[in-house]
Design a protein that fits this description.
The structure holds two protein chains of two kinds. Chain A is an alpha/beta fold. Helices cover 36% and strands 27% of the residues of chain A. Chain A is globular and about 50 Å long. The model of chain A has no long low-confidence stretch (mean pLDDT 86). By secondary structure, chain B is an alpha+beta fold. Chain B has a three-stranded antiparallel beta sheet with strand order 1-2-3, with no helix packed on it. Chain B has a three-stranded antiparallel beta sheet with strand order 4-5-6, with no helix packed on it. In chain B, helix 2 runs parallel beside helix 5. Chain B is elongated, with a radius of gyration of 33 Å. The two termini of chain B are 14 Å apart. The model of chain B has no long low-confidence stretch (mean pLDDT 86). Classes of the chains: A alpha/beta, B alpha+beta.
């Protein structure tokens, strides 16, 4: 059985007045210990697809098709069941690492909320060791800081530590490097790859930077206007000859 | 300054005021209906009983007191004054007798001439020609003069001199209170004149021959020639059960005193200013007048009314007592408005903000409707309208609840807008990604986000509601007299006389309001800083 199996998924979002189709007949799957990249131009529906998998905008959306997580359709699940899949089954890291930390609480406080299963006195220790695993040199200071004093790269590492803390079999990272400079980008990706292979998890890696795909992923899915445009082995990406993929690759060369 | 410190300072100021008011309102119980026109508009003082050192106990011939001052007549003929004695600035010497009314002192000199010292509009009538005055008496605004030929002349206007024409020439002694005069005649009989409705006016028919007589406001006390005492009046007959022979009697305005042969003083009467709390010591002499009592035994012991710490108002009520009781009223009334506002604003703000859409639209139109109601005109009409339906004390509660209701839309709107923007923010979605359920998101992510504006706005509207209470009471639509509040204490300042002459009646409550509101504003500033991690905690 596949870990995640999306079959003929279409999604419409309504914003009060009109309904708009966002996804159209999307079918793909993720195996255990597999890394899949999803690429596409902005507005191609990459992030919306992830939101659909985690059922984040339920009350605004309408679905057809199935999203099977270990054989169960998440579209038909109750909210409580979803709560136990989010983070505990599928852990997602958002695009803006800094903005997605609560500005009113310290990093330590927020990390400890991920460690509720541990006894209280062990949580601090666990936080420190998690932060060390993501290669933060002074974890104590970070733990007692508010998000607004940290750099974006640092927040990214904090999020990775929080992913590590979960037992999720599938990680989703939504453009993890888009707000980082090139040096930090490389570091973060290396770290992500290392942690993933070490802990044997699956990864959905969303990006518009095609250069990263071959090193990070096994397979790649190219999206265009809510449809799956192409699915192939990551190493074959550069050999694709269709105009859309080419234009995406062209864009990268210009940078 | 650190945010933490700021709000602690504010809290200190506010709680200090509150605890102070609470504590003293327990220590100083208040009867809102009690009035005492004798003691009206007295300035702050605690020195009415401070007898100067130069008053040698053995040399004292007589001690008299007015509402706010004391005077001792020495055997040398000098008069020494204390208390609020500014109107007797020049030295008074060669004096035969003195008497004090509420606000005047009558002095009879050795040459039998008479003089009047006063800080109010008290006058003396013309002295009968060629007659020698031997004694003077005074009470309230009235003065009586006893001539050597046994004639009495009364100078006030409330009692007609002609009423005792038949007694003229036979008067040995005179006793007075504010409205009545008792004449002790040479055959031991007592005749009462003045207010006839009073129980004192009916002298007991089988009264022993009287040697001396005193009057309090409500009771009469007579010392018979066989040294027994008889009382009559409001408190009934013979309140003293004294078997010992009585040496001396005296009366203050509200209490009677007898000094028996064993030098014990017994007191009977009201204890408003601790007049009846007689020191447990033998005394040789007692002088009681107004609200001050002086007992002499080697030293001069004084008890009774010391003066008002913060003065008195136009009805003779202690400003300090009313200030602490009024403070409690003002401060607790503010809470009612704030709690009403908080409940409504949080409820409707959260509903509108969290659910959005149609609920939001409906609630916000409702809020606009309520915001459109003009507050002051509504309050004035409501107060007038509710006068018949609600007790006086309930009116201000209604005012505050209405104020809370009218203020709630503003705060609800703020909560709604914060929720609308916050709930779409990354960190809230991130929390959802972390498996948080709706309740957790409300509690841990959204409530902390609205907490700062909630706290800041509620403290602000608390300060505002205190000011509003004061403003409404000032114009007479808030807390109703005689119940005090800081606002209606300020009501006094509507009179030009008070504004000019009695600063303590309006400066003090105004100061209290300023300090308290300032404290609340400091709390608000501190809370604002503390809730903002970028300014406070990092």
């Amino acid at each position: 059985m596949k870990l995640l199996d999306v079959r003929h998924l279409s999604m419409w979002i309504h914003d009060g007045q009109e309904e708009k189709q966002i996804l159209n007949d999307v079918t793909f799957s993720v195996d255990e210990n597999e890394s899949v990249a999803i690429v596409g131009e902005s507005g191609s529906g990459k992030s919306q697809l992830m939101r659909a998998i985690l059922q984040l905008q339920r009350n605004k959306s309408r679905f057809s098709g199935e999203i099977l997580w270990k054989g169960n359709d998440v579209c038909k699940m109750k909210e409580d069941a979803l709560c136990s899949i989010r983070y505990h089954g599928i852990a997602m890291m958002m695009q803006e690492p800094k903005m997605s930390l609560d500005p009113l609480f310290t990093v330590g406080y927020q990390m400890k909320e991920c460690l509720m299963k541990l006894p209280k006195q062990m949580r601090e220790q666990q936080c420190l060791s998690l932060l060390k695993q993501v290669k933060i040199s002074d974890p104590k200071r970070i733990l007692h800081s508010y998000p607004h004093v940290l750099s974006i790269g640092m927040c990214q590492r904090v999020w990775m530590a929080m992913l590590l803390a979960s037992e999720a079999q599938l990680w989703i990272t939504d453009e993890p490097t888009s707000s980082l400079d090139v040096c930090v980008q490389a570091e973060i990706l290396e770290l992500l790859n290392e942690l993933r292979t070490k802990t044997k998890r699956s990864l959905i890696f969303i990006t518009h930077d095609l250069r990263l795909v071959p090193t990070m992923c096994d397979r790649v899915i190219v999206m265009k206007k809510g449809n799956i445009h192409l699915e192939c082995d990551a190493k074959m990406l550069y050999q694709q000859s269709d105009s859309y993929t080419k234009s995406l690759l062209e864009l990268e060369k210009d940078k | 300054m650190k945010a933490n410190k700021t709000w602690k300072i504010g809290m200190g100021i506010y709680l200090g005021m509150f605890v102070f008011c609470l504590l003293f309102s327990f220590l100083l119980p208040m009867d809102p209906y009690q009035q005492n026109m004798t003691l009206k508009n007295l300035s702050p003082a605690r020195n009415y009983l401070s007898v100067p050192k130069e008053v040698e106990p053995k040399e004292v011939k007589k001690i008299v007191s007015g509402a706010s001052f004391g005077c001792a007549l020495m055997k040398s003929g000098d008069v020494i004054t204390w208390g609020d004695d500014g109107f007797m600035s020049e030295p008074i010497n060669n004096v035969l007798d003195i008497a004090a009314g509420d606000h005047h002192l009558v002095v009879l000199y050795n040459d039998h001439s008479i003089n009047l010292f006063t800080n109010e509009s008290v006058t003396l009538s013309e002295i009968e020609n060629n007659q020698m005055i031997t004694h003077v008496f005074a009470s309230g605004n009235a003065t009586a003069m006893l001539y050597a030929n046994g004639h009495v002349q009364y100078s006030d206007g409330t009692v007609d001199n002609e009423r005792w024409d038949q007694d003229q020439g036979h008067v040995l002694d005179v006793a007075m209170n504010d409205h009545q005069i008792a004449l002790v005649l040479d055959d031991g009989r007592v005749h009462m004149f003045g207010e006839d409705e009073n129980e004192i006016a009916t002298v007991p028919e089988t009264l022993c021959p009287v040697r001396d007589m005193v009057l309090s406001e409500n009771d009469a006390l007579a010392l018979c020639q066989d040294q027994r005492v008889v009382t009559w009046g409001e408190s009934g007959r013979d309140v003293f059960s004294v078997s010992d022979k009585v040496k001396m009697i005296d009366a203050s305005k509200e209490a009677l005193f007898v000094l028996d042969e064993n030098n014990r003083i017994r007191a009977y009467g009201k204890n408003t200013f601790h007049e009846t709390e007689v020191p447990n010591e033998p005394f040789e002499t007692i002088y009681a007048d107004a609200y001050q009592i002086y007992g002499i035994h080697e030293d001069i012991h004084a008890w009774g009314h010391r003066g008002f710490l913060m003065g008195s108002d136009a009805y003779g009520r202690d400003v300090f007592t009313r200030l602490v009781h009024g403070g409690l009223v003002t401060m607790s009334i503010g809470w009612i408005a704030v709690i009403t506002e908080m409940i409504l604003a949080v409820l409707f703000g959260c509903l509108a903000g969290y659910y959005g859409g149609k609920v939001d639209g409906l609630l916000m139109r409702l809020a606009e409707l309520i915001s459109g109601v003009p507050f002051l005109p509504l309050m004035v009409t409501l107060s007038a309208f509710m006068k018949e339906l609600l007790p006086e004390s309930g009116r201000i509660l209604l005012v505050m609840i209405v104020y809370g209701c009218l203020n709630a839309p503003v705060l609800a709107r703020m909560i709604r807008s914060v929720l609308l923007s916050e709930k779409e923010k990354e960190y809230v979605i991130a929390a959802k990604l972390m498996g948080a359920n709706t309740w957790h998101i409300l509690k841990k992510e959204l409530f902390p986000a609205i907490l700062p504006i909630l706290l800041v706005n509620l403290t602000l509207s608390y300060a505002d509601s205190m000011l509003l209470e004061s403003a409404l009471s000032f114009i007479g639509f808030g807390v109703a007299q005689p119940y005090p509040s800081w606002g209606n204490l300020l009501e006094n300042a509507q009179s030009a006389y008070v504004l000019e002459h009695c600063w303590w009646q309006w400066v003090l409550p105004a100061l209290c309001i300023v300090i308290c509101v300032f404290g609340v504003h400091v709390i608000q500033e501190g809370l604002r800083k503390m809730c903002d991690p970028k300014e406070g905690r990092s």
